[in-house]
Fold these 2 entries.
Entry 1:
Amino acid sequence: MFGIGMPELIIILVIILIIFGAAKLPEIGKSLGRSIKEFKKAAKDDENKKDTKGPDSPKR
């Protein structure tokens, strides 16, 4: 995907754990999940608007 393997992911997770602490991780996960859900919903709504709207200007 981004050239990130399992060792790199583990290092990133350890750094996040050190910075935020174990108590904050569930809260961060929930907010990240909500953000991704809202982003996908907005992208889908935008795509649906483009499909129903039609062309913006006539072709010449």
Entry 2:
Amino acid sequence: MTKITNNCKKIFSAVKTLSIIFKMMLLFMNHYSQTYRWL
């Protein structure tokens, strides 16, 4: 039971990290496209 909980926690933290990275990438792409439009 403890092993399953630990695995779930690991997966959850990994998903959280991935979502944060994805959001950062989206923000960066949005900012970059806006800057590119101004040129």
